[in-house]
């Protein structure tokens, strides 16, 4: 009986263990890491959509209240994603170099810093709630303020969960991250109607359901690390001097944070311009196109997140040949996924828009916006590939230059020039050009980077190194 129990426990550990990041089966490894990350992002999107359905059952004012609070949560999440990307990259490189001690210290310090930032943010929100609710009307502000005060409790939990998700992916355990997210979001969806309608808590019930589901997710991660099922060892015994490890983490993660912030600003700017020319119909039509772009980006981003651990690990090992092979493979896979989605969206633009509305004017605007945004989407996979490659190589400035192109220094000058001259067509042209020019920039950067990698690989025939002994 004991033998059977030990065998069952050993089997469970193997199933929960990270993937071998040095596996020679590179394509299979890419899929085993990328597909769970992609599925986790998709579940996240579905979870937020279902949340909005429940909120819509309460009333329109409640939906507006959540939308008023959303920018605050996006701001905090942007910093969480930045720290997550930074620590995942640095941990991957440390594991690739065989330095598990440094990887564990990086992970522990970054997790503590993220939770501390979340706690400070929560205190600031509780102290100055009204100052953060931009655009709230007198009718909506009390609802938004009550929701924000409760959801503030979840901000340290959100920061910790984001970082733990990235750490699981960094050590090659995207499956565990995926199943933890599935459990968290499924519980949230179950708790929503219970807290909203069963206990009659309304909008506050939405916030409480979020907090409870996050506590469960963090408990799962706590058990994972307490039982040492992964490679990284989280510890509270790090020294104050270890805070210096945050510098490379923040440097690598800064492009992700700034890109997320720029994207939020870009969406607001494009919708504002659309409303200037076509009012609510313009906002709705362009909003539909932007929502579809976000849906199409999820698979590409998910696969890229899975590949990030492979590239960071290989770069840390000094295995330039593997970095080159992984980057090539990632560019092919992401380009294929983005290309298929982009073409399908263009071909079926009106049918896709019809899922959201039956208003003829909105359908017409949405159809034009879908074509303008999805035609250059064929190059989105290359943008993600070069971003992940730059991050793995520890080149934050290069990553920032590519990351801020589409929704930053290319978009806003185009918005200031084209719409005043050509009206709504100018907006469509600006949306198309900023994406297309970013795609072309990504092509040039990727071609130059791959050429440099080929040269280094040819100059160093001993680049292939044995993987560290602690790898599964």
From TrEMBL:
Segments crossing the lipid bilayer: 21-43, 63-88, 109-135, 147-169, 176-199, 205-224, 249-271, 283-305, 326-348, 360-382, 398-418, 424-447
Primary location: membrane
Membrane topology, record value: Multi-pass membrane protein
UniProt keyword Ubl conjugation, yes or no: no
InterPro entries assigned to the protein according to its UniProt record, in alphabetical order: MATE_fam (IPR002528), MdtK-like (IPR048279), Membrane_Transporter-Flippase (IPR052031)
Pfam families, A to Z: MatE (PF01554)
Domain of life of the native organism: Bacteria
Subcellular location: Cell inner membrane
PANTHER family on file: MULTIDRUG RESISTANCE PROTEIN YPNP-RELATED
Protein name (Swiss-Prot/TrEMBL): Multi antimicrobial extrusion MatE family protein
Upper classification of the organism: Bacteria, Pseudomonadati, Pseudomonadota, Alphaproteobacteria, Hyphomicrobiales
């Amino acid at each position: 009986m004991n033998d059977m129990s030990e065998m069952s426990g050993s089997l469970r550990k193997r199933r929960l263990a990270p993937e071998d990041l040095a596996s020679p089966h590179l394509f299979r490894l890419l899929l085993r890491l990328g597909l769970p990350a992609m599925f986790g992002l998709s579940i996240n999107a579905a979870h937020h959509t279902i949340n909005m359905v429940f909120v819509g059952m309460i009333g329109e004012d409640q939906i507006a209240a959540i939308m008023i609070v959303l920018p605050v949560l996006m701001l905090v999440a942007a910093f969480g994603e930045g720290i997550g990307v930074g620590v995942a990259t640095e941990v991957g490189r440390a594991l690739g170099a065989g330095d598990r001690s440094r990887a564990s210290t990086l992970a522990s310090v970054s997790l503590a810093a993220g939770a501390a930032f979340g706690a400070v943010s929560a205190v600031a929100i509780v102290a100055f709630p009204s100052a953060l609710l931009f655009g709230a009307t007198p009718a909506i502000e009390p609802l938004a303020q009550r929701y924000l005060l409760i959801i503030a409790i979840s901000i340290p939990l959100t920061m910790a969960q984001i970082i733990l998700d990235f750490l699981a992916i960094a050590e090659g355990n995207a499956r565990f991250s995926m199943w933890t997210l599935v459990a968290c979001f499924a519980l949230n969806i179950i708790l929503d109607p219970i807290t909203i309608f069963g206990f009659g808590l309304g909008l506050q019930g939405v916030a409480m359901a979020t907090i409870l589901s996050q506590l469960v997710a963090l408990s799962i991660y706590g058990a994972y690390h307490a039982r040492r099922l992964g490679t990284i060892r989280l510890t509270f015994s790090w020294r104050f001097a270890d805070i210096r490890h945050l510098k490379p983490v923040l440097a690598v993660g800064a492009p992700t944070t700034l890109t997320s912030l720029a994207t939020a600003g870009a969406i607001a700017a494009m919708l504002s311009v659309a409303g200037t020319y076509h009012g609510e119909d313009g906002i709705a039509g362009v909003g539909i196109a932007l929502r579809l772009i976000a849906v199409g980006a999820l698979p590409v981003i998910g696969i890229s997140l899975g590949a990030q651990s492979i590239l960071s690990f290989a770069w840390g090992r000094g295995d330039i040949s593997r970095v080159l092979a992984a980057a090539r493979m990632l560019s092919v896979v992401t380009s294929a996924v983005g290309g298929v989605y982009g073409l399908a969206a263009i071909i079926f633009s009106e049918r896709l828009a019809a899922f959201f509305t039956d208003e003829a004017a909105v359908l017409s605007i949405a159809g034009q916006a879908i074509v303008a945004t999805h035609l250059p989407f064929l190059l989105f996979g290359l943008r993600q590939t070069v971003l992940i490659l730059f991050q793995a190589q520890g080149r934050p400035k290069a990553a920032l230059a590519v990351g801020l192109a589409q929704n930053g220094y290319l978009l806003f000058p185009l918005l200031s020039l084209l719409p005043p001259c050509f009206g709504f067509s100018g907006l469509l042209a600006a949306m198309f050009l900023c994406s297309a020019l970013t795609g072309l920039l990504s092509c040039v950067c990727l071609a130059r980077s791959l050429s440099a990698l080929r040269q280094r690989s040819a100059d160093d025939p001993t680049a292939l190194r044995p993987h560290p002994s602690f790898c599964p």
